[in-house]
Amino acid sequence: MDIAEVAKRSGLPASTLRYYDEKGLIASTGRQGLRRTFDEGVLERLALIALGRAAGFLLDEIARMFGPNGQPRIDRVMLNAKADELDRTIRNLSAMRDGLRHAAVCRAPSHMECPTFRRILGAAASGAIGGRREKKKKQQPPPAG
After folding, report:
1. Quick check: 66 and 74 in contact, CB under 8 A?
2. ∠ at Cα 30 (24, 32), nearest 5°?
3. Whole-angstrom Cα distance, residue 53 to residue 35?
4. Are 91 and 84 in contact (CB under 8 A)?
5. Alpha-carbon distance 90 to 15, whole Å?
6. Alpha-carbon distance 62 to 59, whole Å?
7. Of 50, 2, 61, which Cα lies nearest the Cα of 18?
8. How many Å apart are CA 117 and CA 109, to the nearest integer?
9. φ and ψ at 127, to 5 degrees?
10. How far apart are CA 103 and CA 49, in angstroms?
11. Residue 8 and residue 15: Cα distance in Å, rounded?
């Protein structure tokens, strides 16, 4: 299949296919004039890439999920770690949704007077919700002496 056919069947623009080819995520089998050509298996590989992207994996992480022969070699530890990350994201988004729903119907004269809203505000300030992460501290060498 030439790149136009792959683009049509996969729903991806040719520019994305060229980028994936350059990153080693897919491999063209040759050229038909100026157009890259691919074998039929590229569509399944593109589906695996799309699944990885939907799960939140970076392209470099997805690339490591393929062996040198191009066959999937999916790291189950990495899948579990991503599932744990998604669980944290779901909990955070659920807390945010619940907070917004409460704020929308709260009968306090001001949101700042509402204990529930103040708890949510504190959680957001601490980074417990809202996606803000604590920066890792660089380890300092032990003091000389």
Report:
1. no
2. 130
3. 26
4. no
5. 33
6. 5
7. 2
8. 12
9. 90, 0
10. 39
11. 12
pTM equals 0.70
Is residue 129 within 8 Å of 96, Cβ to Cβ? Answer: yes
Secondary structure of the chain as H, E, C letters: CEHHHHHHHHCCCHHHHHHHHHHCCCCCCEEECCEEECCCHHHHHHHHHHHHHHCCCCHHHHHCCECCCCCECCCHHHHHHHHHHHHHHHHHHHHHHHHHHHHHHCCCCCHHHCHHHHHHHHHHHHCCCCCCCCCCCCCCCCCCC
Token pair for 76: 């189950």
Quote the CA–CA distance of 48 and 16 in Å, as a whole number. 15
- What digits encode the pLDDT tens for the residues 38-89? 999 999 999 999 999 999 999 999 999 988 887 888 889 999 999 999 999 9
